[in-house]
Amino acid sequence: MHCCILKMGFENDVFVGASLINLYSRFRGLDSAYKVFVEMPVRDVGSWNAMISGFCQNGNAAEALDVLNKMKGEGLKMDKVTVSSILPVCAQSNDVVSGLLIHLYVIKHGLEEDVFVSNALINMYSKLGRLQDSQRVFYYMKVKDLVSWNSIIAAYEQNDVPTTALGLFKEMQFVGIRPDLLTVVSLASILGQLSDETVSRSVHGFVMRHEWLEKDVVIGNALVNMYAKLGAMDCASTVFEHLPLRDIISWNTLITGYAQNGLASEAIDAFNKMEQCENIIPNQGTWVSILPAYSHLGALQQGTKIHGRLIKNSLYLDVFVATCLIDMYGKCGWLDDAMSLFYEIPRETSVPWNAIISSLGIHGHGEQALQLFKDMLAEGVNADHITFISLLSACSHSASNRLLEVDSDNVGYYVLLSNMYANVGKWEGVTKVRSLARDRGLSKTPGWSSVVVGSIVEVFYTGNQTHPKCIEIYDELRVLTAKMKSIGYVPDYSFVLQDVEEDEKEQILTSHSERLAIAFGIISTPPGSPIRIFKNLRVCGDCHNATKYISRITERDIVVRDSNRFHHFKDGICSCGDYW
DNA sequence: TTAGGGTTAG
């Protein structure tokens, strides 16, 4: 075709050039596309954009950025298409600085009005884990299309905030936008995360009625994953067996499902079956799915065989794969091998440290585990909650005081430990850590919230029962909670750290200081007027979610200033993007 | 010439 174009004398036409670049980068390879690009006698912004998006769509982030820099070098300015093409590259290469600079450029040149540009910004921020920025872009968009909604729903789903993602899905339907296949892929993942079996089944039915399984392998994989997350492996495997299309991710999803539901033998059977399929090549995801199954069964021989295979392609140096190997050697009793592998791989994140600390713990080497924890901090690696769980189990013989000796003045560790105990229902642990913190003079500040009504500032402490309008306040909260529940609010009891029954947990959440202040604001000011709250600590996560519902039900703007930031709640959405 | 999706360790 290129020859025909040359014969017909169209080679100088920039539109033809851009189309050729586009066509070649999709079907013929980037080399051919780049050849057309460099041989073009005249290039306009469109030609550069075609080349940038060509590199980007094929995952060549570095080359895409290189072309962009050359384009700038020739004095050409980015337009809305350039920006939309380059933003996914920033996400791919985890380049926050470039992403922010391009966003500034967008604002300076008024490009945020373009729906492609804004959608690309939502997606980039989401992939960089900056949910708050995604939310802000979405919030200020004047025109939102299906892609905008899919992007913001996927953003919350992928950053593990499924409740908000589901709320946005409902809102999308409320404003009259019909879901497409990509919406349902996110929805399946949301329902798996929320363990909602009833709605999950109806989503499965919806997909079947639309015959989407024949259309795209991704939706089938999403359904297998959804059932696996619900613990319904019989349904997951039935869906898998009937998939018209299967790729490596379908297999990985099935294997992971079995392994994570404690069915290690079934995971290994599935892996062996997969090995029989000629066109399926295992990838990193396969190894991190199957290795834990071998660890679980103590199947060292099969595990070392996999290690051998991985040495040939250097995949054993991948931090996730290596962590699985460390864990396997640790669990199978080969601590020396676990240690030597640990010192061979990159250790910038907590992931491999957690695995080796946990391995040392299994073998009763509490002291050595503690030493590694110190080394980890000395190397500037941040500990996370898994580190503490690993350390706690490692130090179980010597149950956690030793852990607090490392940094005994850091009140955060006490709160973290106490929350960890609370989450697993070990209330005696909670009491012990709290009294330890109290003994050391590290008490937690009591939370209070204030609200201004007229010229008077009212202050509420959590659980206040003495305010003159106490009865009205709690009545208002009861009515609000019922309305909130009718439109999807589910109380999140993980924010209640007391060992009490569920109805009591709900009462505790309802009597948080910020909620009392909001309720007082509602009953004391004219309908529709804004409410301003100040909280001395960070606002509780469940109260944050509840306030979104309250802003929608009461049609009021609610501004909460907490110790961390401003939250502006309006029509069911918070300006902070739920990432505070 | 432009934007969106599925699996994964501790």
TrEMBL record:
Looking up PROSITE patterns in the UniProt record yields: PPR
Q: What does the record list as GO biological process?
A: RNA modification
This protein's UniProt keywords: Repeat
InterPro entries linked: DYW_dom (IPR032867), E_motif (IPR046848), PPR_At4g14850-like_plant (IPR046960), PPR_rpt (IPR002885), TPR-like_helical_dom_sf (IPR011990)
Q: Where are the PPR repeats?
A: 44-78, 145-179, 247-277, 349-383
Gene3D superfamilies in UniProt: Tetratricopeptide repeat domain
DYW domain ranges (all copies): 488-580
Please list the GO terms describing molecular function: RNA binding; zinc ion binding
Q: Where is the signal peptide?
A: none
Which family, according to UniProt?
A: Belongs to the PPR family. PCMP-H subfamily.
- Report the NCBIfam families cross-referenced here: PPR (TIGR00756)
- Which PANTHER family does the entry link to? DYW DOMAIN-CONTAINING PROTEIN (PTHR47926:SF533), PENTATRICOPEPTIDE REPEAT-CONTAINING PROTEIN (PTHR47926)
What's the name of the protein? Answer: DYW domain-containing protein
Q: Which species is this record about?
A: Lupinus angustifolius
Could you read off the lineage of the organism from its UniProt record? Eukaryota, Viridiplantae, Streptophyta, Embryophyta, Tracheophyta
